[in-house]
Putative p-hydroxybenzoate hydroxylase
Amino acid sequence: MGAGPAGLTVGNILRAAAVDCLVLETETREFIEQRPRAGVIEEWAVRGLEKRGLARNLLDRAELHSACEFRFDGERYRFPYGELTGSHHFVYPQPLLVTDLVREYADVRGGQIRFGVRDVRVHDIDTDRPSVSYTCQETGEQRTVHCDFVAGCDGARGVTRAALPPERVRVARHDYGIGWLALLAEAPPSADCVLFGCHARGFAGQMPRSPEVTRYYLQCPPGDAPENWPHERVWAELQERLGASGVPPLTEGRLIEKRVLDMHDYVVEPMGSGRLFLAGDAAHLVAPIAAKGMNLALHDAFLLGDALVARLTSGDDSGLGGYAEACLRRVWDYQEFSQWLSEVYHGTAAGDPFRAGTTLARLRRLFTSPAAAAAFAEQYLGTAARY
């Protein structure tokens, strides 16, 4: 269920082992291949894709980032995490990765996929023959697929999480009480790396996506409306919050996307029941504060795909039995880092002098303490979570 990075990766792993599977997706192929989403992929995740034959275009086309820059107190502070760790980030927009995964799954490995499905329902997950029913958009015909397992990779608004028996699951949720205005600008990045602006007016971020397009974020009230942020106001706030001594103004351009994200996290435990297993945002949502969401989805997909192959080809249940526990160790590690980083990003704008002071102390420590710098670099790159 779901043709995002998690679902398509699971499907590709199954097809590589000659296991039959069907991917169901409510959107069109064109939509998922163009939908703006994350773009920062950690090196361990890229190596996992490469191991499974899924990273050829990524390795050829992705930009490599080995530093980021914090801007606070009117100054700029470059953080060269590549020098500290020997690792780097790959910047490869999620639509490009999804395009690669769809092509490999459907056009190369012969996987079945249905786009534009409606009225999706999951049935009988506690039996050895669960099923999924859906309405075909083209014909209006209702169809039912009987299967051995269901992989719920259909995101935060999908149907598979709701199919779990409520008495067996716990959903832990955290709300940050802030919003981010997510922007895509037709403008080249104004620096060669990610920028984090920690400002009394609110957080701002620059995330390069390509030589022509840049992702920006602006802290705003939760539930704010994009219409409250016309072109002039957006760029005035970005210039102010990302400004620093000795740096030129940001390069401005047309805004091609504006949407408000309310910052919150949740974790579903356990990540499945019976023959239904969740992966990606269906199982856990981590706010984009630390750019961890797609990486967690890929981690789930590697473990779930390999576990399903072991069960279906050799009868080995150990991977499925330990799947949720193995995933959740990394999930909770990333959630904790996201909370810590949120205070760094947003503490100076909290209106509380004490929080502002401790936030600035944390920021300065990153650039004066080798131990603090090493710990941050490991968490930022995901190399501290060796599971």
Remarks:
- The first helix runs from residue 5 to 16.
